[in-house]
Structures are given as structure tokens and as C-alpha cells.
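Predict structure. Chain length: 220.
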Amino acid sequence: MSINDVVRTRMPRRRDAQERYDRLVAAARSEFAARGVDASLERIARQAGVAIGTLYRHFPTRLHLLLAAFEPRLREFLDGSEKALEVDDPWDGFVSYLENLFRVQAGDRGFNDFLSRRFPGSPETERIHDEMCRQIDDVLTRAQEAGVVRPDITLADIVNLIWSNGRMIDATSASAPNAWQRQLHLMLDAYRAQAAHPLPEPPMTDEQLYDAMVHLSTAD
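Prediction complete.
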């Protein structure tokens, strides 16, 4: 199933129910963007002017609310990813994909958290992350086969870059909101094939990477 399959058009609702739904989604977008995916659901309900029970009637779990709130970001991410995957030059496509990924990440603390974590209890988010990993593998493998990206870079290295970039975004979003661009391009120079030198530690396995992303979603 494609990542697009989880960004669905909502079923029609009564006007009053739709208004409450829309207020909840708007409040969630604001709170998640400012405070991350662990933002208080009670605060979101208050911001929307509804009781917490109303929130749960519309969104049985936090992940249901996250997916509704992140729909515009997911669409922005998807549109940029599709364009990057169509770039003819393998290096330019690799750079374009990562620039799109980090630009969307930089605009929303909650979406930053969402990209960095795994939520194994949710088939919808698992499909989104699986598709994102396949996209990264596609642009990375294509660039490596063209000889422009060092051959020992793996998916785990790119996810580590997402984590480090996310931490930097948290630190600089108010004072230097574009600082991530410098950091990304410094790292891209390190990824170039001509810059390769032996590394002291092997990359994480797929299992280690998955476990680390799950740990981020469960850590206090």
C-alpha cells in the first residue's frame, strides 16, 4: 500500500460535528507544532473549546489525531518526494530528496518527532515510515550506483541525520531557523564518494534502527 493511501479524504459529517472536528484538528496542528507529538490532549481539547470526551469520540487514540493533524505536512512531503525521485541526475535527486525532507521537518516540531520515531501499534504510521524508508533507499542506491555517494552509507546513516537535524531544529528554530541548511550541506559533502575513508564503526542493522526509533516513541 502506498503512503498516499493513508492520507485519505474524510467521510462527510453533520455540520456541527464537522466544526468540532475542524477545531480539534486546528488546535492539534498548533499544539503539536509547538510542543511535539507528546503535547497534552487535554490542552488541545481546551484550545478547541470541547470536552476531552469529544476529542476521543473523533480520535480514539493520539495517533489518529496525529495523522489528521499532519495531513498537510504529509502531502507537502509527498509532493516534494515525488519531484525529487524524478530528477535525472542521481546526486541532484539525492540532495533534493533530503532538502525536501528536512525543510518539512524544520517547519513543525511535531512532524519532526513523527519522522524520527516508530509507532508499532499503528499500521497506518508503519506504512508511512516503511514507504519513507523505501524512498530513501531508492535515491541513495541510485546515487551510489552512479558512483557519486560513498558506498558504505546506509539507510541508518540517513535516519541518524534526521535525528541530529531534529535536535538542531529544536535548538535553533527561534534564533536561526535556516541553520539546518548549512548542517545538511556539510553532511552531504561527507557523503560524497570522493570523500570516503574507512569508518571505525559499522552501520546499525535494520533491526537496531527499528528498535531505536521505537525507543524514541516510548522514552520519557
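Summary: The domain at 11-69 is CATH 1.10.10.60 (Arc Repressor Mutant, subunit A).
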